[in-house]
Amino acid sequence: MQYELDATNQTLGRLASKIAILLRGKNLPSFNPRILPQTEVTIKNLSKARFTGSKLDTKKYYRYTGHPGGIKTQTLRQRWEAKPKELMTQMVYHMLPENRSRNKIIKNLKFE
């Protein structure tokens, strides 16, 4: 099955949860958690998605380089402007169950 979602004027978190449900096949009557569904989700107009509140400037992402004093900080706005597809993929990835099939399921997420 193929699904095509339009991200125009939709909030990113709600869109990501819809995508996670579709990728797992939980919307199908034949849902079985141990069987991988053959569904593919394509997202259009990702750049037109919106954020609520002041998340763009207040939400921060941290990463550690491994060196003393090596904590790097990035705001959501910086990440969104640099790589929106990667950010969306990461959001959906973390909404999927933590098991061996997660890496296989996320490959069915496509962007236009």
From TrEMBL:
A GO term (biological process) for this protein?
negative regulation of translation
- List the coiled-coil residues: none
A cellular component term from Gene Ontology for this protein is: cytosolic large ribosomal subunit
Q: Where is the signal peptide?
A: none
Q: Which SUPFAM superfamilies match?
A: Ribosomal protein L13
What are the entry keywords?
A: Ribonucleoprotein, Ribosomal protein
Does Nuclease count among this protein's keywords?
A: no
Report the GO molecular function annotations.
mRNA binding; structural constituent of ribosome
**Does the UniProt entry include the keyword Ribonucleoprotein?**
yes
| Entries under Gene3D superfamilies matching the protein | Ribosomal protein L13
The entry assigns this protein to a family as follows:
Belongs to the universal ribosomal protein uL13 family.
Checking NCBIfam families in the record gives: rplM_bact
Q: What is this protein called?
A: 50S ribosomal protein L13
Organism, by scientific name, is Candidatus Yanofskybacteria bacterium RIFCSPHIGHO2_01_FULL_45_42
